Structures are given as C-alpha cells and as structure tokens.
Amino acid sequence: LAATTATSLSRPYRGYMSATFLAAASRRRQDAASQAGPGPSSLPAGFLPLPVVDGATLTYERFLREYALPRQPCLITNLGPSWRAREWSAEYLLAHEGVDQTHRVHMADGPPQEAKERRTTVGKALEAVRRAGGRPVYLSAWDYVRGNSGALQADFDVPRYFERAPAWLRENVVLGNAATDMKWLYIGTAGSGSETHVDTNLTSAWLWVAAGEKEWVCAHGGDHELLTSGSGSRAFGYKDDDDDGGAPLPDLFARDLFEAWPHARSARLYRGVQRAGDVCYNPSRCVHAVRNLGGPAGVVTSLTHNFVDASNLADVAADATRSINEELLPMARSLKPRSFLKSLAKSLRIEREALVAALVELPQLLSDERLEEVVACAAAGAEPDSRAADGGAAAGPDGVARLLRAELHGRMAAVRP
What we know:
It is a single chain. It contains 13 helices and 14 strands. It is α+β, with helices and mostly antiparallel strands. Helix 9 (313-334) packs parallel to helix 13 and helix 10 crosses helix 11 (352-365).
C-alpha cells in the first residue's frame, strides 16, 4: 500500500548500529558459512553459495522449515518442464492472441546502474528486445494480468510451494492485491537487470526462468535491517525516484561492495546462477539484485509472482501497519475525507466503494478466525515429509498447520495494531 500513496514522509536516518547488533550479525554469517561449506571456486570472496534444492523431491513442509519461515533465499530446480511457458520468447508473445500489445510498460535502456527508463507499449518493448543488437535493454515489471494479458497464466502452473492463500487474502487491496497487481514478466538482454531492492509490501516472490540465465545476489531475510538501515523508504520497496532523503541501498554487484558498505561484510549474502526451469525464491525482507546473463538470441525471459500467505503474512501486515500509521493517516488528516478516498482509490485503481469496504474491514482482517483460515488454506494437501525435523512420523497437513500456526501467531504478536 505504501507504494501507491502520492506522498511519503521523511524518516530519520537510521545508519547507526550498535556493536552488539553487528557482532550478532557477524556470528549469524559465520554460522551460515560453516553450514554452507566451500562454494564453487568462481564464487567471489565474501559471498555464500545460493542454496540449490531439487523441486522433484522438495516437500512443502521442508520448504517451510528450511527456507520460507527462516527467510532463506534459494534456487529450486526441475519446475515446469512441461509448461507451455517454456516456449516463451518475444516472438511467441507478439504472436499470442491473449497479449494486449497496447498496454503501457517501463522499458530500461542500458546496464542497471546507468539505465534510462522510458514508457512505451508492450508491443514496442518486445520489438525493442528483438532488435537490441547486443545492447542491454529490459522490459521490466510488465504487469501482465493488470495489463489485460492474463491469458498467459494458462501456460504454467503455480508451483505447490507458493500462493497457498484464500482468495480474500490474495485480492485484499490493503495487502497489495497480489492476485492482480503482483504478477509480472521480465524480458531482457545480457547485461540488463535490476538494482538492489526490497520487494513491495515486504511480500515474498518466486521467479521462474523460461529461457536464458540470471545471476543473483540475495541477502538472508534476517539481515534486512543490517542492509537497509538509513535507507528510508527504500527499505520497504520504494524506488529511488520516490526519494525521501534516505541513503541508497548497497550495490550488491559492486566490486567494492565490502569497502563502500562495510556493514555488508556481516550480512549473509548468497550468490548463484539461475538457469531455465529454475525458480529463485526470495523470502520476505530479502534484499536482492539480479543480472541477465543471456540466453537464446541473447534474451532472458522470466516470470515473477509476489505473494502473501501464512508464511509471510506477519511481515506484510507489519508493513501495512507502518504504511497506514506513517503515511496514510497523516495524508488523510491533511485532506478532506472525500478527496482522500478519491485520490487513494485512483492510485489503487479500484472503485471508491470497494476501497471503503476494505478500510471498514481492517479491524477484522487479522482476527483469530481469519488467521486460522489462512493457516488451513496453506496446510491443505501438504504432502508428508519423510525428513520430519523431529525424526518422528511425517507430519502432513496437521503437522504443517501446527507449524504455521505457532510461527504466525508468534510473529503477529509483534505487529502493532
């Protein structure tokens, strides 16, 4: 919700970190390094290998215990080998009857640190990718569902680890309307990419590559404050053009990263290459950056969905609470009620009546009954895990529900009403 408001308030610089805080972060990094073991010889010093897990054998329970709940980024292989989306390319999308080529999108020309953004149509952006001639160009964050190209969803299935949420949660505008507004395609040539950022609304994301390769640097979600301290609104998914005076986030691909941003030495920074058919999972609060390495005809084609479910609802609710208290309420107090509702409804692209209904529902949004529904939806159909953490019988849906219930209620206790 913060990303849709017209006005953001300045936040104090939070660059100071106590010696105790930094020491604890360093210990976590050392523990992660000892567990990861030696990485490939090509891995630059200071980075940990991005964990890789086989999607053919990974159960939902193990995914929760080892990745989602600890906020650990990873690569998941062997997903979608038979999806029609494996055929995606600029040519395929230009010929697809379900693609609205007139929808306006952002196109970036140049490498991430120097890219110049411009507005154009989907059709012109796809043609620009085809004719790039080796130049870094990037059709980034094509909101294909919002942009009348939702027919592309028939070309793939959402992997079983993600988006396990009831419709009212996926469609809630206060929490981002993930069902419509957090589904994107990214199509770019070698050398293009995305600068360091945090995903909107503190949601989690899964990104699947249809063709080509990407290189990632992903921080452990537990090191969010370490890497975003003093960055102001960028810590919550704002872009640099929404500047509120905060410091820039570290350039995670910079050669002088650890000299320019000394605090990054204490962070758990994972680096790895994603190939076609792999998913890169970025948990809530994960600071990350990505580069396109190239692919067929030099183009990398990928799909990204951000989502909110039982695994990250507390983080998303905390961000919504912050946005309401720090941005929306001051904005509401400075405007007349009708003007405020009209402005907010326009930015959210919904009818005013729907916005009013969502705001009225806020006090009940995270009631015990609603939280139980979120847990039940996530746990439904969870397959037994032969690698049960306690060495006992495989948990299945009941065990997954207990795990999620305990984690969710514990984390929600820290969310300010």
